[in-house]
Structures
1.
Amino acid sequence: MLKDKKIIVGVTGGIAAYKTPLLVRELVKAGAEVQVVMTRAAQQFVTPLTFSTVARRDVITEMFGEQPAATAQAWTQHIGLALWADVMMIAPATAHTIAKLAHGFADDFLSTLVLALRCPLLIAPSMDVDMYLNPTTQQNLASLKEAGYFLLPPDEGELASGLTGAGRLPEIETLIKAAEELLDRVHQDLRDKNILVTAGPTYEPIDPVRFIGNSSSGKMGFALAHAAALRGANVTLVAGPVQLRTPRNVRRIDVRTARDMYDAVHREFDQAHALIMAAAVADYTVAQPATQKIKREQQSGDTLTLTLSKNPDILRSLGERKTHQVIVGFALETDNGVANAQAKAKAKHADMIVLNNPSEEGSGFHTDTNRVTFVYPDGAIEELPLLPKFDVAMKILDRIQALMRA
Ligand code: PMT
């Protein structure tokens, strides 16, 4: 798995840095090409010479390295390396580096490189237990996870400070297994493919301050966009109003109403090789939204009647327009799921429908997991177990890849 793989190992200034040369040695022994990048603080714990000896390559410690600062090579080395790698790991990752990465700082080689990276990045936090559990560190880690980086939680046990708790760098075998799993899961098999994804709810205005919406968080659609980008696709994500960070290397178009989403998706559709409609689009909109806030005092009686009109069915309209595109829709069903999804696949000319049920534990809105069934227009079905939404996204992309080939 590691043979001939190009791996960047980032080392930051924590006591666990003393273990990282062993990680590098094992990666090299397994046949990987390893480029080590160290922060200044890391060099307080282990010397670059140790790493260059085990990696059999010069270690990068400075933004401008050996070359004169004015050379083109010095300016673009971080970009070249970012494109070179199959995977990057930061082990150990200190609270300081995690905070920098979470906020997009680029004040040294390591942080600049991470901003330019296209391949998966595995971050192994290691620090004292209180620093790790500090809400700021946890928030920064959550933010990195949301941005599409992979986190390997620290082990619990005795720490260098003498305290006991979470914060130890996992064993070398665990780090290597995590890198192998990532390389196994993420192939660049969608390079040059344009994938269009929709995510989140739509909001239909009632008046300038109120709307009709739904509970979609956007997590399913964002997981799809993230997974497709990691697999090398050019991803356009049309997102309804959600509170999520845009995954790395994803072009995002924000929309609010179903009509906005319809316009955006139709604009992008011709260039797409595949469309995945994970958004929970409102089927109805308020026929005539009020131009001023509706005031309670001005209403007679105890009820307020809103007249709704049908929104366009985006998926169906694109199914009718498709030329070469693979089209995947979702179906959110609480009863008669398979039959309804089969009907949707046919009516909307979809190549596949991803059926999920919001009343099942761990599925549907807001959850980090989903249990889905793939339903095909010819009646075939494929049931998946409960999985993280990222893994569901990977499975959907596997099927799309097969449908594109067919
Ligand atoms: O965002 P999360 O919190 O992660 O939740 C994920 C999810 C539950 C929203 C997602 O997994 C999901 O099921 N999305 C589709 C929800 C939905 O609108 O299902 P539906 O069965 O009503 O619609 C069928 C398909 O037609 C969907 O692909 C939908 O995007 C599309 N549609 C629906 C209405 C409409 N006017 N135009 C459409 O294109």
2.
Amino acid sequence: MSRGRFITLEGIEGAGKSTVAKFAVAWLGRHNVAVRLTREPGGTPLAERLRQMVLERGTETVSPATETLLMFAARGLHVQNVIRPALERGEWVVCDRFTDATRAYQGSGRGVDSSLIETLARVVHPDVQPDCTLLLDLPPAHGLIRARSRAGGGADRFEAETVEFFERVRAGYLELARREPERFHVIDAAAPLMEVEHRVAAALARLNPPARARK
Ligand code: Z5A
């Protein structure tokens, strides 16, 4: 059995990752792919608890380095218990955020040294790298309007950040995409959803899923 493909979704908040993730899973299902949808931080019971801790706006100071360590602690649990086993069973994994989010948010957004992030990536997932990353690109002001119009119970630690912070995150993502054009597909997330989905389907088709299921 061949190893499954690992697809990640990235972008600033409100870019449409969760919406596109559901579309990608449905599209792959129609192409006979056994697919697992998951997210970061989170994806396992313990990692979801870490997610709550890292997102909540508590009273303690969380330094950028500590935030990075918490992201990788959750990622270690997620890779070991969910992502790697699924890929080894031949399933495809669609993951809403992965290590590129740490590079963009903690690295470009908060100024954490890239050597720390790359060292942790090598330790935590030396054998697991995305085959395809869909970067939903959107001006931060647009993403914040979408996210805040939907947010119910108050902003989390990231949602409370400034537009300037998200500008740095966006620039960080675009630089990652520029460096790895084969892996990244940059999609204009301000476009109508049907157009976004069309671009997503084209990127997924390049991964050569099995032939479409007969009706
Ligand atoms: N974080 C980090 O710092 N470091 C890390 O390593 C990791 C994460 C892994 C939680 O992530 C936070 O963790 C995140 C970064 C940090 N914080 N921020 N920012 P998350 O992914 O769970 O949370 P999020 O980024 O805030 O996701 P989100 O706000 O749920 O956004 P989304 O999933 O990208 O968007 P959506 O829910 O699919 O869409 C938002 C709305 O827009 C919704 O009403 C849609 O119907 C609508 N939408 C979507 N696409 C369109 C189009 N094309 N047109 C019109 N309307 C649309």
